[in-house]
Amino acid sequence: MGPHPAVAAIRLAVRRTLADLARHAVPGGAFAAPPPTPPRQVSADPTRLPRAQAPAGAPLVLVACSGGADSMALAVATAFEAPKLGLRAGAVTVDHGLQPGSADRARDLADRLRALGLDPVETAAVGVGRHGGPENAARTARYAALDEAAARHGAVAVLLGHTRDDQAETVLLGLARGSGARSLAGMPAATGRYRRPLLEVDRSATRQACAAQGVPVWDDPHNTDPAFTRSRVRHEVLPVLEKHLGGGVVQALARTARLFRDDADALDAWADLAEREVREACTADGGPDGGLDTGRLAALPPAVRRRVLRRAAVRAGSPPGDLFARHVEAVEQLVTGWRGQGPLHLPGGVEVRRRCGSLFFRTQTPNA
């Protein structure tokens, strides 16, 4: 008898992601012949099926695990699938220190992850600041801790437990903020060292998988706290949409994200070429190096032009999380609505000035 359907679906999703990683990380490819020596050890996953460990020195993937159903289902599936593809699997749990007893919960979770056969497993205590609100500050601290752990252990990837429901919530949040196509594209399946194997899996499946395998989960009370924007979207906005628009809203929003991502990727590729052209045109016309030719910028479609301008601002030092559409639109006015206006000041101390038919972005040096 095979595994529970939810368990099988999650294992398949994880296997696909790990196979792609293994093709690039394991000498000989993901499906290279196994070594002639037997595995170092045999342990058991929660379904009591035997599971062989990958040899020492194999490429390592880390699972970011909070103890919730999504990340626990991911951790269990990764522990089961990774060794079969020649990968080691470990885990990191981040203690944000925002709730009583969080340190004890993190230690207990680390013990349970080790019992799955994951190695290395570590807890990372972080301090959460205030910049950008509590959700953004916690996210920033969490990713910094995951980046540090991945670099220290030499991990080829960090796996995140975001599901299709998380993707739908992200699309709604992007729509409410008016952040453009890239925001509506939601979370990518892969970005840098991060991978999201479960973006095509419903949140309910992760809970079913954990229940079927006898895996205890922890429900973070912040996930139901209406003080947090994502919690309100999850428990108030999406249920209303489902009620009045019919079922399938989550799936439709996730599909919208995929379509927007294809469009955004194509526009980004176009912007890559356009940025080189406007920089080269500025230099060719005798302008100083580093400027953007406003004539060439004005001839670009707005979607491409705004991407070029946003990239120039970020490259000059404007933080991406603080650079909003209204900032980029204001810079665009220096191109399409030029009336001799003075320089603009963007987040991060970046000044944008038009001079001699070119735009220049520079970071202002604070007065001593």
Q: Secondary-structure element order, as H and E? A: HEEEHEHEHEHHEEHHHEHHHEEE
Low-pLDDT segments: 28-47
Mean pLDDT: 86
Oligomer: single chain
Q: How many distinct beta strands?
A: 12
Radius of gyration: 24 Å
Biggest sheet strand order reads: 5-4-3-6-8-7
| Shape, per Cα inertia axes | elongated
End-to-end Cα distance: 73 Å
Number of helices: 12
Helical content, roughly?
40-55%
Beta-strand percent range: 5-15%
What's the arrangement of secondary structure elements?
Blueprint (H helix, E strand, L loop, with lengths): L4 H21 L16 E3 L5 E3 L7 E5 L4 H13 L6 E8 L6 H14 L5 E5 L8 H20 L3 E3 L4 H14 L3 H4 L5 E2 L2 E2 L7 H10 L16 H17 L3 H36 L7 E2 H6 L2 H15 L8 H12 L7 E3 L3 E6 L2 E6 L5
Parallel strand pairs: 3-4, 3-6, 4-5, 6-8
Antiparallel strand pairs: 1-2, 7-8, 9-12, 10-11, 11-12
Describe this structure in words.
The protein has 368 residues and is α/β, with parallel strands linked by helices. Helix content is 49%, strand content 13%. The chain contains twelve helices and twelve strands. The strands form three sheets. The protein has a six-stranded mixed sheet with strand order 5-4-3-6-8-7, with helices on both faces. Helix 2 (69-81) crosses helix 7 (203-212), helix 9 (249-284) packs across helix 11 and helix 11 packs across helix 12. The termini are far apart. The model is unreliable at 28-47 (pLDDT under 50).
